[in-house]
């Protein structure tokens, strides 16, 4: 019985330390600026910007650490695909109508539009390669 209590207590302490370490690491992430190839969308310009061509829209918030992790990834995707895909961002705290319209419940969420129609939804932190494969899968690249 005591061995079980000690084992569980040790496990709880180790998990707690891992969480504290991860939180400290996340808080130390420096803000990365968006590439000039990333378009900022608003409730007012959203529909006009997605109506033609291929647009990858990242729904994000300034307080969201996973969203911050996606900035360099999206910058790379924007730099590599700027002649075929528009990479854009919507701040869900500032553009509530657009976020609500697309039922954004979790961020980061990326929606890929072709000529104004949603063709793919990607939720969570993803790698550059993952996003490029998704673009390739629907024959964009």
Shape descriptor: elongated
The CATH H-level superfamily of the largest domain is Glutaredoxin
What is the CATH topology classification name of the largest domain? Glutaredoxin
Strand order of the largest sheet: 1-3-2-4-5
Low-confidence region ranges: none
Averaged pLDDT:
89
User: Biggest sheet, in brief?
Assistant: 5 strands, mixed
Q: What's the number of extended β-strand segments?
A: 5
How are the elements arranged and paired?
Layout: H1 2-27, E1 38-40, H2 46-50, E2 54-60, H3 65-81, E3 86-91, H4 96-101, E4 109-114, E5 117-123, H5 128-137
Parallel strand pairs: 1-3, 2-3
Antiparallel strand pairs: 2-4, 4-5
Description:
- The chain is an alpha/beta fold and 141 residues long.
- The chain folds into two domains: 1-30; 38-137, 3-Layer(aba) Sandwich (Glutaredoxin), CATH 3.40.30.10.
- The protein has five helices and five strands.
- Strands 1-3-2-4-5 form a five-stranded mixed sheet.
- The longest helix is centred in the first third of the chain and has 26 residues, at 2-27.
């Amino acid at each position: 019985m005591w061995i079980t209590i000690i084992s569980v207590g040790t496990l709880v302490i180790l998990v707690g330390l891992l969480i504290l370490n991860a939180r400290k690491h996340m808080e130390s992430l420096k803000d990365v600026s968006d590439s000039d190839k990333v378009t900022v969308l608003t409730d007012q310009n959203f529909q006009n910007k997605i109506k033609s061509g291929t647009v990858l829209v990242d729904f994000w918030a300034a307080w969201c650490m996973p969203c911050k992790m996606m900035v360099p990834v999206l910058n790379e995707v924007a730099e590599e695909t700027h002649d075929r895909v528009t990479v854009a961002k919507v701040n869900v705290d500032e553009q509530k109508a657009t976020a609500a319209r697309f039922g954004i419940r979790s961020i980061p969420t990326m929606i890929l539009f072709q000529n104004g129609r949603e063709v793919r939804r990607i939720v969570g932190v993803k790698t550059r390669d993952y996003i490029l494969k998704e673009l390739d899968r629907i024959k964009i690249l």
